[in-house]
């Protein structure tokens, strides 16, 4: 199947840009459809984003979170995968352009480009912070933390300057999960790896949240439980504080407080991929594309926007759905199913999100879950539910096996075999 449109081709071409949850979900649902599918992503792997913080803290190896995209479509004869970067999309001409590939025309387009980190204009944030949205981000943070501890071990004077301190920005799932995981890495493994480095007094982890409380999407009992769980792990929480600027070794808050820290993890928010700003579409909050009930772009019904790049309204609540892996996967699958139905002349259906609950893990045996009906779970029971849902989202049985082995090892022995630095 060539990149250029063959004039003799009779089957519709579906171009899917983005190999995340949404893109993969769409492609796989088109497996039996009489279409030609072309999936293009700038990477050659699919990233399981909900577990990036576990890569960053040495709990999981990279292969457990990054899976070859081509491996996911080996048995799909109507699909082809290309690694390239999308440079432009002409919606009127129905054409996608790339850095190196020849332009692709399409009958249907699935936009699963994902999001980008939103730094909200904070001075120094793009240059000096460590976001956690891509696999490269996770590896970069892990290497930085390991190198920082090695440097402090060689030169203890660095500790007095805050070398081992970490500031985590954002009181949502990303920030809280990362803060909890870092605290367990510090106190569970690094206290043994670096016995001459004093803990915990000289290695502070501070979580900064601009709002008045953590986990605003959860009920009060979960928020209280979360605060206690973080405190138990020696994580300091500052609510109602906004980051004003970030330097390599200092974080300044708008209140005037200066935090001495050589590491700042940014988990404060996302915005739609910047490419969508060039499409001439009316964008919603966070540069996200508004869609209709079938996830189509209203002005171009042959185009579907799914995943983090789309502003999808929940039919039940009337609220825009959060940028979560479960939302992206279900939206992508719906887009693929809808295209397949349109091609075969069948009636289509509106998208209905099946809420499996909002959840997060704070540490070993410590998680929180809030179900659609308001029921909540905390502690070990929530950890089992969290693990079950996340294992189901992993793309292959091999990935699930890797995760189970690593989780079991960490749960029983605190061991984190992935805490090594590999220079390239």
From the N-terminal CA to the C-terminal CA, the straight-line distance is 35 Å
Query: Could you give a short account of the major beta sheet?
Result: 6 strands, mixed
Strand content: 15-25%
Name of the CATH class of the largest domain: Alpha Beta
What's the overall geometry? Answer: globular
Overall CATH architecture of the largest domain: 3-Layer(bba) Sandwich
How is this structure best described in words?
It is a single chain. The protein has 424 residues and is of the alpha/beta class. The protein has 2 domains: 13-42 and 84-117 and 271-343, FAD/NAD(P)-binding domain (3-Layer(bba) Sandwich); 125-268 and 358-413, FAD/NAD(P)-binding domain (3-Layer(bba) Sandwich), CATH 3.50.50.100. It has 11 helices and 27 strands. The protein has helices spanning 21-29, 52-56, 69-72, 125-128, 135-154, 157-160, 173-193, 220-232, 325-343, 380-393, 397-413, and strands spanning 13-17, 36-41, 45-47, 66-68, 79-83, 86-90, 95-98, 104-105, 108-111, 115-117, 130-131, 166-169, 205-209, 235-239, 243-246, 250-253, 258-260, 263-266, 270-272, 283-284, 288-290, 296-297, 300-305, 310-311, 358-363, 366-370, 376-378. It has a 6-stranded mixed sheet, with helices on one face. Strands 11-18-12-13-14 form a 5-stranded parallel sheet. A 3-stranded antiparallel sheet has the order 6-7-8, with no helix packed on it. Strand 15 and strand 16 form a beta hairpin. Helix 1 runs parallel beside helix 9 (325-343). It is globular.
């Amino acid at each position: 199947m060539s990149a250029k449109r063959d004039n003799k081709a009779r089957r519709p071409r579906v171009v899917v840009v983005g190999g995340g949850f949404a893109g993969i979900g769409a492609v796989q649902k088109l497996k039996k459809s009489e279409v030609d599918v072309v999936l293009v992503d700038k990477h050659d792997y699919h990233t399981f984003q909900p577990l990036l913080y576990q890569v960053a803290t040495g709990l999981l190896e990279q292969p457990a979170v990054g899976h070859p995209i081509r491996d996911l479509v080996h048995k799909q004869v109507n699909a082809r995968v290309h690694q390239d970067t999308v440079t432009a999309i002409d919606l009127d001409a129905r054409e996608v352009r790339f850095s190196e590939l020849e332009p692709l025309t399409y009958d249907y387009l699935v936009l699963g480009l994902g999001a980008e980190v939103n730094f909200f204009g904070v001075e120094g944030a793009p240059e000096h912070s460590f976001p956690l949205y891509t696999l490269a981000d996770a590896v970069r943070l892990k290497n930085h933390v390991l190198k920082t501890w090695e440097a402090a071990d060689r030169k203890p004077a660095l500790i007095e300057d805050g070398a081992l301190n970490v500031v985590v920005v954002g009181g949502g799932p990303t920030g809280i999960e990362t803060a909890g995981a870092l605290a367990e890495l510090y106190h569970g493994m690094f206290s043994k790896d670096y016995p001459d480095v004093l803990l915990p007094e000289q290695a502070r982890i501070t979580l900064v949240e601009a709002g008045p409380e953590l986990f605003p999407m959860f009920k009060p009992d979960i928020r209280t439980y979360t605060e206690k769980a973080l405190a138990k792990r020696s994580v300091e929480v500052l609510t109602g504080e906004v980051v004003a600027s970030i330097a390599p070794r200092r974080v300044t808050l708008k209140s005037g407080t200066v935090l001495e820290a050589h590491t700042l993890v940014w988990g404060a928010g996302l915005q739609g991929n910047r490419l969508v700003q060039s499409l001439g579409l009316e964008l919603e909050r966070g540069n996200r594309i508004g869609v209709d009930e079938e996830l189509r772009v209203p002005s171009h019904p042959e185009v579907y926007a799914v995943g983090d790049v789309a502003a999808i309204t929940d039919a039940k609540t009337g609220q825009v759905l959060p940028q979560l892996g479960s939302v992206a996967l279900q939206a992508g699958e719906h887009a693929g199913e809808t295209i397949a139905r349109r091609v075969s002349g069948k009636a289509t259906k509106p998208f209905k999100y099946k809420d499996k609950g909002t959840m997060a893990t704070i540490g070993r045996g410590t998680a929180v879950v809030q179900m659609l009906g308001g029921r909540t779970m905390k502690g070990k029971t929530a950890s089992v539910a969290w693990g079950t849902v996340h294992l189901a989202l992993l793309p292959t049985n091999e990935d699930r096996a890797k995760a189970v082995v690593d989780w079991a090892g960490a749960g029983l022995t605190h061991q984190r075999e992935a805490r090594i630095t590999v220079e390239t």
